Every structure is written in C-alpha cells, then in structure tokens.
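Marked as duplicate of an earlier ticket. Keeping the data here for the record.
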Amino acid sequence: MNAIDGAFAPDSFDPFDLNKPHAIWRQFREEQPVFYHEPSGYYVVTKYDDIKAIFDDWKTYSSENVNKPARPTCDAALKVLKDGNFTAYSGLTSRVPPEHTRIRKVAQSCFGPRRFKTIEPQIAGIVDRHLDNLEAAGADGPVDFWREVAYPVPAFVLFTLMGIPDEDVPRIKQYGESRAALTFGDLDEAGQVAAAQDMVDYWNYIDDLVTARTENPGDDFPSDLLRLQAEGAEISRDEIKGVMFSTLFAGHETTSTLMGNAVITLMNNRNAWEALKADHSKIPNAVEEILRHSPSVTGWRRKARHAGTVGGVDIPEGAEILMITGSANRDDERFPDGETFDITRKNARTHLSFGYGIHYCLGFQLAKMEGQIVLERLTERFPDMELTDGFEAEFARNLSFRVPLSVTVNLNK
C-alpha cells in the first residue's frame, strides 16, 4: 500500500498543536495508523508496535534528523549561528553506531545510578526548598506550580551533577527553552534569530565549562568525561561538548514537564491523588503511568535510509517520519483502555516515553527518582492541593515536547 494514495490526513491536524491532541490521535490509530501528511512532509505513525519496530530498526530508520529544525531556519538566524562559530552536533540522539555506541559507553559510565544515588539527599533538599517557595507564594491564593517548582527543580538537580553554579540556572534554562523552540517549535523569523543567539551563547558556555574542568577537575559529569578521555577512552573534546550540549538540555526540560503534567493529571484524577496520599508505595508505578498517559515527549522523528514498510504502508527511501509516541502510549492493543489514567496499571512501565532500543534515554532513572520525590513531598505537605477553578492547561506549540505554560493551583481548600 502507498500511503500517499490512501492518505487519511484531515485538514484540522496540526502536529505542532499539543493542546488536545488525543482524540485525533485515537482516530488515526483506528482509521489510518500510518499516513503521509502533506502539509508537514512527514509520514505519521501512531500505533505502539509500529513505532517500537521503527525504534528497533536503526539501520533502516535513522535518528540523523532528530535535531533537524522542524521549520526551516531563516537566513538571518543561520548567519547568527555561523558568525558565532556554532558547531554543536548531537551528543547521542542523532548519532548512529558505531559512533553512537562508542560515545554512549563512555557517557553512561559517568551518568548512571551510582552517581544519581549519591545526590539523592541533595535532590530532596532542592525539592523541599522549592516547596517552601511554593508555600510562601501560595499562602494567600493561587500559585503557579510550574514556575515555582516544576520549572526550576530539575535544573538545580542536573546542574548539581554537572558542577554548574546555582546562579547560572536561569540562563541555562533559557538556553534550553530556545533549543527546544528552534529545533522542535514553530518560531517566526524574529524568534529564530533570538533563539539562534541563545544557541551561540549556550555553545560558548559549554566550551568555557569544559576548559575550566580541564584546568581544574571537580567531582562532576564533565570532569568524569575528561578523566576518562585522559585515561584513553575514545571520546574527543568536541564529542564531550556535544554530550554536555545534549544533557544540559534533555536532562532537565523533560523532567520539568513530567512534574507539571503529573500535577495536572493527578488533580484531574482525584481518586489517584487520594490513593498516593494514603500509600506512598504506589508512587513509583504512578510515575510510570504519568509518563505513559501524559508524557513530556509526544513525538520523535526518524529518516528512512532505505525503503521500508511500516504497518503495511510503503515508506520510500529518504522519507521523514514522525512517530507520535504520545499516541502509541494510549494504544488499546498494548494498554487496555489506554485513554484511562490508572496508577495500578501493570504494564505502565512499557511506555515509549523514554524511547526504545539503542537511543533509550540515558537519564531515565534520574527523571523517575525526581518525580517520585516530588510526589512524596507534595502529598505530605499539600494534601488538599487542587487546580484553580476553571484552570485548563495550555501547551507550547511544539512537534515533540508537550510543555504546559502554567499549572495554577490552590494549596489549601
């Protein structure tokens, strides 16, 4: 079957609009799970098994386009990048073996459970400090959980691992937002130029950081990478910078969204919130179910290196593919009654929110640890928390990252 001949692509579908996408995603799964969407130029894939198969077949479906701007970069923004000597390339997500295998082996030896466990008390302290801020800001009325907790906490956690001073957190968060918008967003030319300048500043910041750790090593991730390089590990200085470029973005932006979406989802599913308050042992699986039902990342891209077939649809060589993992996570064939949020779901952890196969998220354990600590503390300190009357979440326009613009709550009834 040729997807273009029988394309099911209603005019109303806008892949950048992540406000209320679930009904149309379900319609796609039921009526045309794989189709060519002419306005965007993507072959869109919506079912679990099809997406998992693409993730698994990296030789046919390459990740080389993961960081390709979703909208063509304008000439003015390209000039900013060129004049600023911006030469960043993917740390891992856009790379394929054997290069990917070599770099990932080095990176994951420094960024894993052992190091995460050592900073768990610091994570709890960071969470508590920001919940204090939330309590103070919300003492007399509504408060934005996103701005006070979800947005900053993962950055402070990650930058503890990275050896970055607290005073630099706001600027690195800004760089992360600009990277997400320039790569996956729907910016106009002025927005692209501003984001491009942030990318230049971001790349220079990383270069300065690697230089500083070369001269004065510390107990942190860049120092570990440089130590392994000095001991003979096969990783170049530019590759170390690339890993830092990716980790400093992916390691906090998606965890912020996990926290924000967790509060939105649990406040809209009060029985689940009450269950977590009563029994913290249910929190780990609840985090998995939040990742399945309301994920931070709802789409990944691939490029067909060779012609292939997905879900009975012919995919030509060179085709751009948009895998809607947010849809796959609600596929009834994998997750019975998949649209329903259920913190007791036995197979919740088989979601695709961290990817699958060789590109499985390097920091998945850290994200889940942070999510669990936040829910433990929230249910203890603010058991009566609820969304403000009439609150309806709005999400940034983006091809991949479903980021709430605010999460406004009342802490007490």
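See parent ticket for discussion. The longest strand covers residues 300-304.
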